[in-house]
Predict the structure.
Amino acid sequence: MNRLLALALLSLPLQPLPALAQATGDLGLVIERATGSLLVVDRSDRAAVGRVEGLGDLSHASMTYSPDERFAFVFGRDGGLSKVDMLSRQVVARSVQAGNSIGGAISDDGRLVAVSNYEPGGVKVFDADTLALVADIPAAGKTIGLVDVPGRRFAWTVWDTGEVFLGDFSAAEPQVTLIGNAGKNPFDAVLTDDAHTYLVGLFGEKGVTAFDLWSATPKPVKFLKDYGKPSEDLPVYKMPHLQGWAFAEGQYALPAVGQHEILWVDRQSLQETGRTPVHGQPVFIIAQPASPYVWVNFATPLNDTVQVVDSRDHSVVATLTPGKAVLHMEFAPRGAEVWISSRDDNRVLIYDTRSREKLGEIEAKAPSGIFFTARAHRPGL
Amino acid sequence: MRSLCALLVCTMPAMADVAPDRAMALEHMVIQDCGSCHGLTLKGGLGRPLTAQALAEADPEILALVILDGIPGTAMPPWRPLLTEDEAMWIADYLKTKESP
């Protein structure tokens, strides 16, 4: 026994370092929607370093990261909630928790993971360690726009009814409060980076509804109520996403629904400050960190193009055609690079954000969302 | 290669005047673009399920009209700017005969 132990100790320093020693701060996951797999990417190497399989239906999938950037929680369309270990590159826990789900969030302390569901509608909350069910909050319809709110809270909205809820999970018994009605058919919602304002985008009527979450009694405030009128709306071939709503230069950059425009709104007054005609129906409008620029992609059939817009004068400063069916863009946390997924070219394209030249590309199977681990430290993601 | 092409053509629904390469593009469009609301497996999402089972009672001509003109007051857009009537009919037949994955 002693000899064995001595041997083991002796041999330890000679072993290669175990995989656990790898840092995760520059890693990310790319959703491969058609194959139900995740591509593990290394931002520094601009390379794919592995693949995780067996995640079910990943159309419209999203994810969030644990505070230590080791685990990803992946929300699949088929109701599957999967916990993925970035080091072993394996699914370490999985729960098919609903028939059909749309997204999720992790609490500010990393203890709880919440999922918003379409079928049956509602929000389910899980222990982040074990994925054991902690709370099951039913809703009168499909839930959208689920975000984490500081203090182990979550906010969400119901597509069918327009109701907006704030759930407090800091005590043993969850407290869920109806904070108001956003309007007709809210399609998505987002929390500002300072966790101050919960913005709900409306599909069934013109406008956006803001809730002040710093207030003890948040109330709905509707703005942009008449944008786009009276001209005829264009068909919306893909719902805009609000996860990446840009907050630049004291403004919100919002996608006009049914118009090929970006709308600029002053954060304080909620008054429109300008419009930018763009290439198509905006899907994601994402601020390039540490810059005055926002990047925009578009709904099918105009989805081979990405535009860069200056938030100071609202002008389009660049138009790129990175590939076919551009679905998502993710910035390096300090903004030096943007990674762009081209679903129909089966590639992720990497661009330098200053020169806007392509730096590299990575093969991926029908890639959609790109998620870097740095998201772990940003509220509302 | 030739037998593969033959096989692909045979598995397409018999209806509608749509060339084989266009049919493949339409199938891609159904899975990917319709799939963004109806789910990649067409089992539903923001939009209703579009599996053959879910559409068993649906009239293909009416389905084609819904595809072309959308459903006002809902998120279903009119696809007429992007599709011909034959192509919409092809999609309706495709949806009604497609096997669930």
Notes: The interface with chain A takes residues 28, 31-33, 35-37, 39-41, 43-46, 70, 73, 75, 77-79, 81-82 of chain B (CB under 8 Å).
